[in-house]
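Cross-check.
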Amino acid sequence: MTDARAERPLGIPWTVRFFESAPIAPIWIGILVAFSWLALYVAYAYQVDWIGAPGQPSWNNLELAVLFAAMIGYAPTATAYGFRGAARDMHALRPALDCSDSEFRELLHGLTRFDGGVLLIVSTAAVVVGLLIPFLPFIWRTGRTPEFGDAELTWNMLQFTILYWLGARDLYMGRILDRRFSNIGARCRVELLDTRPLAPLGRAGLRGARATIGFAALLSLMLLLPLIGYYIPPVFIIGVLIVSLGLAVHRLLTPMMGVRRRLREAKRAELERVREVIRAESRSRSEREDHWQSIDGHLSDLIVYETRIESVSTWPVDSSGVLRFALYVFGGLGAWVGAALMERLLSAAVG
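Predicted model, tokenized:
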């Protein structure tokens, strides 16, 4: 390749390298990140006299701080596991790839490398948004933004900035990974009667959807919190969750789009071919006998084959994969939202 994009230096983001260089599994790093953030909150709370201060609620939004710590630990952990899974899927997809060993190594090398300049732009935009979000009046219970320098405003500027920075990088890298898998899938050999070699593309989609729904499930816990000091309208959270669900579906399907086009083209061509043979066989029989005869073995085999080809799915994911996605949605997301709505209905009924 000689285009400008190919000449730009690509590399693995440092946040992922940090997880990969650690001697323990990414999940433990994520837990350490979450507890470290919570420890920072406790230190800040002592510093600004939130704990036990007159007129201040105990620990001042501790529940929300725990939730933010969980999301801050979850985002980079999901990214690290996404990179590991992408490498595994590439190796599993190798038998279906129509390329040489050197081309495969190049594809594998470039799969999880990103343009540092684009990542910097994405990160900068996320930081700006994170700094501005706490100034929106509607997220405060009083309906007014505290004065600049207020302890709670300062803390929320910090935690929103970190969360948006991590979330934007994870979203961008996940989107690029999905598109790369789609492009790689367009190079795969397809066999209509055996799509099992293409299953890694379905697993890549499920992994991306699971990561998105996991984050959305944590976000949905806000519906269960009293949100002391805040008034975030439930309709706002529900709207974000609906967008997250749409994003999860998008991430599920995108890695399979390239190979799906190949499968659809192969299926259409094969159906045209077998139907032409059936038509030719029918014409031959009519001309030979001058009337319709009972279907013989050859023609019946062709009809069975046509039915078999028509039933081939152009999505390389089986029913168990679809079931797992449904479980992610209704188990990881629907349960929290349902519990929150039920709690609010009960509160309204008894209130």
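The longest strand covers residues 10-11. The beta strands are 10-11, 114-115. Passed to J.P. for a second look.
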